[in-house]
Specification:
mainly alpha
Length: 118
């Protein structure tokens, strides 16, 4: 037999009460996890602000990475994910939808060809 929801349980689902419950839970996590942070209170802990590289000492060197090659790959994966999403949502068995899907694939392929051609 299904359990009937009692009136006292419904009050927990009210938005203000649910918000307060979640707020208290997140605040307790915030207070509890403060000891792991590198804030001012824990500044005196040894090694708190040191770089970690598998136990090796790392010299403070600032590297400016070049992301010029990254854009084309990020754009490629974005286009491929959108194409996969659009093509898989076309209805099956419809000739017009098939033609539209093939046209969409061809236009995406041309766009990616232009991207990697330059």
């Amino acid at each position: 037999m299904d359990k009937i929801i009692e009136v006292k349980d419904v009050y927990l689902l009210l938005p203000p009460i649910a918000f307060l419950i979640v707020f208290v839970f997140v605040w307790l996590q915030y207070v509890g996890l403060k000891m792991f942070s590198a804030g001012e209170k824990w500044k005196d802990e040894e090694g708190k602000r040191e770089s970690y590289a598998c136990g090796h000492d790392v010299k403070d060197s600032r590297v400016a990475p070049d992301y010029s090659q990254f854009f084309s790959f990020a754009f490629f994966f974005t286009i491929m994910h959108v194409v996969a999403l659009i093509v898989t949502t076309f209805p099956s068995g419809d000739v017009e939808a098939l033609a539209l899907g093939v046209g969409y694939l061809v236009s995406a392929a041309v766009g990616l060809f232009i991207l990697f051609k330059r």
